[in-house]
Design brief:
Chain lengths: ~40, ~500
């Protein structure tokens, strides 16, 4: 397989997908952080 | 004589069975009428929830909300999906519809059921909201209307399967597998069978209960079975929406999926795993055990989410590859900048993808988490989420494909094209802001399905909200006006095309 064949066919979409996954992590984190401030463990 | 019943589309070269063309037109136009009715109800409901306006009194608010939920989530969407099923089978495969007369029986049952439900709701005999939970009881004709609609939809779905069989038998489509769009619609139709069986399983006993034949209706049992109808019907909307994404991608930019097996596997995952995921609607029900809920919503649901992740990368990647092939290869995003944003079908589809991905999908998965759901349940966060899915995702995708149905099936050039071009932008931006503001207000605890959060109807136990809530409710009101405007333009352009559009 040549280097040409190994190139990413959709690099822009890969970046969008990474942004999407980062957003997912951030939203999950914020939700669980918000929940932890309501449900304190004493 | 059989050949006289077909025409060849001068644009796509597809063979179109004339009886199925009439059925697609009937179902599409009826869908448009009901999105207008549901949209009018949306405006009234939004102007009531916006405290600065607070338009309707309590009785009419819940009435209009019931009509809005039913007409949008069920009637508009399912009429459009039946049209899509006929397109995806008979038209894409160049075969005659298995039994057009049966298609008309299905249409009449659906129309009769929808009209009956609307009459009962507007007459004040069914103030039970979309979920119609016992012990709330509606007039028996309301439940009968729902059953008639469901039976009609099931007949239309069976006709779709029969047409696929005909295509194989008459060898009108000789490739090894059906086109991806048809396969996706097949997945949607498969989910609809279990959906409608759950619907029959719950609405027939409920009808008998409303007639006094069954004495007791256990609310928890009702909710368990109802959500087998309720959530699955939304997942079939998602499956149909994604099929439409592939269709519009192909028609607008010549998109081909990078790996079709990948995409087909994702559709199969939807069929297999979406029903157990429905349990996220029952997370706060005390009747069901935690182990059961967490297994279904914390683990199995993610197999359906995996399917969404596959499509989330496959669809944009396919569009990017197609646009790069046209020469837009500079940097990471020249293809994105140079995409045909002036094509209303394309722009509607892209808005649908982004709203569904970022606003709807992420919030759906997080709110479906058992622990987060305790604080999200019954707040406006849920309503914001499902406006992102169905209104920003599915409805916008259907709006987009309409701009192809009009020239290809109705054989009319889109009327008032400048309006059509801006319609997805007005609607998409409006819905995105609307659903975000609902979720932000809901994060402060604003309940869903509530007529008067400012005063709680003069209750001595009224609650003082953080003032930020009123800001988000104002933003919601303005965004709702924008979304309704986008909806009005869509209906006006569509009907304008049918009556005044130049013949293609």
């Amino acid at each position: 397989m040549s280097n040409e064949d190994r190139k990413l066919v959709a690099p822009g979409t890969l970046v969008l997908a990474i942004i999407f996954l980062i957003t997912f992590v951030a939203v999950y984190f914020l939700n669980l952080k918000y929940l932890s401030s309501i449900w304190e463990i004493r | 004589m059989a050949e006289q019943n077909f025409r060849t589309c001068s644009i796509t070269g597809l063979k179109v069975h004339l009886p199925v063309e009439r059925l697609i037109k009937a179902n599409t136009l009826t869908a448009l009428i009901f999105i207008a009715v549901g949209g009018a109800a949306a405006l009234l409901a939004a102007l009531t929830r916006w405290p600065a306006v607070h338009l309707l009194g309590p009785e009419w608010f819940y009435r209009i909300l019931t009509a809005h939920g039913f007409d949008m989530l069920i009637v508009w969407i399912i009429f459009f999906e039946i049209a899509a099923l006929y397109l995806g089978s008979a038209v894409l495969l160049g075969v005659r519809l298995a039994a057009p007369a049966v298609g008309w029986i299905a249409y009449i049952l659906m129309l009769g059921g929808a009209v009956l439900v609307n009459i009962m709701v507007l007459a004040g005999k069914a103030d039970v909201l979309f979920t119609s939970y016992p012990p709330l009881m509606a007039h028996p004709l309301f439940y009968l209307g729902v059953i008639l609609f469901a039976v009609g939809a099931l007949i239309g779905t069976i006709l779709f399967f029969a047409t696929l069989y005909m295509a194989r038998k008459e060898k009108t489509y000789t490739h090894e597998s059906f086109p991806l769009v048809t396969f996706g619609l097949f997945a949607a139709a498969s989910i609809s069978v279990t959906t409608l069986i759950h619907g029959a399983g719950i609405y027939i006993p409920t009808l008998l209960w409303s007639l006094g034949i069954i004495k007791n209706m256990d609310p928890s049992a009702y909710r368990l079975v109802w959500w087998g109808l309720g959530h699955s019907s939304q997942q079939l909307n998602v499956t149909a929406m994604i099929s439409i994404w592939y269709l519009v991608g192909a028609l607008s930019v010549g998109m081909k999926p990078i790996n079709e097996k990948f995409c087909r596997t994702a559709f199969v995952l939807y069929i297999l795993f979406i029903n157990v995921a429905s349990e996220h609607h029952l997370l706060v029900d005390p009747v069901f055990g935690s182990a059961h809920k967490i297994w279904n919503t914390g683990y199995i649901m993610h197999l359906a989410v995996l399917a969404s992740m596959i499509h989330a990368i496959a669809v944009p990647a396919g569009i990017e590859v197609a646009l790069r092939k046209k020469g837009y290869t500079k940097g990471l995003f020249e293809w994105f900048k140079m995409a045909p944003w002036g094509n209303p079908a394309f722009s509607a589809t892209m808005f649908s993808i982004f709203i569904f991905g970022f606003l709807a999908g992420i919030t759906g998965v997080t709110f479906g988490n058992a622990q987060i759901n305790i604080t999200a349940h019954n707040t406006w966060r849920i309503t914001g989420h499902f406006h992102a899915t169905v209104v920003g995702g599915t409805t916008l995708a259907f709006m987009g494909v309409t701009y192809y149905l009009l020239p290809l099936i109705f054989r009319r050039q889109v009327w008032a094209m400048p309006l059509a071009k801006i319609q997805p932008w007005i609607y998409g931006i409006g819905v995105a802001i609307l659903s975000s503001s609902m979720m932000l207000a809901g994060a402060y605890g604003i309940p869903r399905r509530h007529w008067d959060i400012a005063n709680f109807g003069g209750s001595p136990f009224a609650f003082a909200w953080d003032p930020t809530v009123y800001m988000w409710l104002g933003v919601f009101g303005i965004a709702a006006l924008m979304a309704v405007l986008g909806g009005i333009i869509y209906v006006v352009v569509a009907f304008g095309t049918v009556f005044f559009g130049k013949k293609v």
